[in-house]
């Protein structure tokens, strides 16, 4: 090889290295990216939007508008033969053991819609005591004179079949869309009622037990039985003729009083005193734990703690809260 060819061969690697280095330098603003033949350019990606979280479930919602809207609530009376509507869309359901083996439910809707909700029943003190802190718009079917006065004094907004102009109720049913349309403008979203855990978080800091079945036995009435469905990670129960599910079931034991009302018709009925404190039991996911509940007054959230004083950390999702009278038996297995 002559001297010129030798020099050309020696310079070739240096030129290749020099070109590679030049291509790796940052391009000036507005320039065109150069891609080597055979190399596929990585697609440009935009960050995944972070959806807001619903305060009553701890789950993401479809839009910021849903997260920011106020809640709506409906009292529902359920007997053994009743087929209630809309309970599957409620974020929280409060259940009081009422007269004649019935349940008086307070269904609260915020993150999801229900085309039918009912049968809508009268307002009761338990509704007022559960709802005041959440500030929902309430659809209810009248009530005893004294209970209506309590509702008005609590400064809760609502609508009844007698003053809806035929726009909110159809027979004994309503819908969340009709209630939100009738609600005053400027309502605020509800506060969180539970301190939801993250994946891997234990339900309680102590005394956690495996749970597959929960039975609530109240004297004089049929038991409430809930079973854990591991495939869906949900607790399954039956209310009236309808199967319902919940991520969390809370059982709060408390004093019940007998109230006597005179208007519009004389009768006596049981009423849960949801103010104060008492024992609690919770199931969420495949776990159960004993605890304590405490609700000082109308404008305070009911806090539920384990026996060590730490807040329970249920899995995100909807919740059923049973107000159980003293003397009821709560078992799990």
UniProtKB/TrEMBL annotation:
Annotated ranges, domain DUF3048: 56-174
Q: Which SUPFAM superfamilies match?
A: YerB-like (SSF159774)
The alphabetized UniProt keywords are:
Signal
> What Pfam families has UniProt attached to this entry?
DUF3048
The protein's name is DUF3048 domain-containing protein
Keyword Signal tagged? yes
The reply on keyword Ribonucleoprotein is: no
The residues forming the signal peptide are 1-24
Domain of life, per lineage: Bacteria
